[in-house]
TrEMBL record:
Pfam families linked: TetR_N
Name used for this protein in its record: TetR family transcriptional regulator
GO molecular function, one term: transcription cis-regulatory region binding
InterPro entries reported in the protein's UniProt record: Homeodomain-like_sf, HTH-type_TetR-like_transc_reg, HTH_TetR
SUPFAM superfamilies linked: Homeodomain-like
Source domain of life: Bacteria
The entry's keywords: DNA-binding, Transcription, Transcription regulation
Residue ranges: DNA binding: 36-55
Residue ranges of domain HTH tetR-type in the record: 13-73
Length: 209
């Protein structure tokens, strides 16, 4: 997320972060189901309406970096150098996201998510939304509208790579293993073959790049 520059924007960002930090502290201390929005608002010293101004739901308090992750995935496509291959750029970003989400400090949060059906459902819907945003960015990069089936499939595989690797014994090796298959699938897609004939190849690269 772009850092706020104006005083008002900085104040809003600070309030949002205080609410999110307070919510996570209460959730981890008392249990997700035992804490309500009113509890979070009272502890953060804000109105309930202020909580909902920054977060659409109680579940969103747990996934407060949702928007940042989505933007990072899109930027992996739109912000790469003109001749940088697509798949290695996505793999690089997934590696970074997996490192963030498998740090020791995040383990209590993920245990809480796994133990809550509501949070698991929210995460699934979040992944689908991220995949659609990624597919749209990929399609725009290729001059397509709407996203092709291939773009949507590769975007889903990329998001799933994050989820699968996060739970693997060796997360970083799992990312590379999955992306070998993703690269092969993308190279076989007609839309990718068309892009390759129109300009520099965008799908090459070796695992761990």
């Amino acid at each position: 997320m772009t850092a706020p520059t104006g005083r008002r924007e900085r104040k809003k960002a600070a309030t949002r972060q205080r609410i999110a930090d307070t919510a996570m502290r209460l959730f981890l201390a008392r249990g997700y189901d035992a804490v309500g929005i009113r509890d979070v608002a009272a502890e953060a010293d804000v109105a309930v309406a202020t909580v909902f101004t920054h977060f659409a739901s109680k579940e969103a308090l747990v996934f407060e970096l949702d928007e940042d992750f989505e933007q990072r995935l899109v930027l992996a496509v739109t912000g790469r150098a003109p001749h940088e291959p697509l798949i290695p750029a996505l793999r690089h970003e997934i590696h970074a996201l997996v490192r963030h989400c498998t740090a020791d400090s995040t383990a209590p949060t993920w245990r809480m998510i796994y133990d809550s059906p509501a949070l698991r459902d929210y995460e699934e819907s979040m992944r689908l939304r991220h995949a659609e945003s990624l597919a749209t960015a990929m399609a725009a990069d290729l001059g397509l509208s709407p996203p092709s089936t291939a773009c949507r499939a590769i975007a889903r595989f990329t998001i799933d790579a994050f989820a699968v690797a996060r739970e693997a014994p060796d997360p970083q090796a799992a990312v590379d293993e999955v992306f070998v298959m993703i690269a092969a699938a993308w190279e076989a897609a007609p839309v990718a073959q068309g892009a390759a004939t129109a300009g520099p190849p965008k799908v090459t690269g070796t695992p761990g790049e």
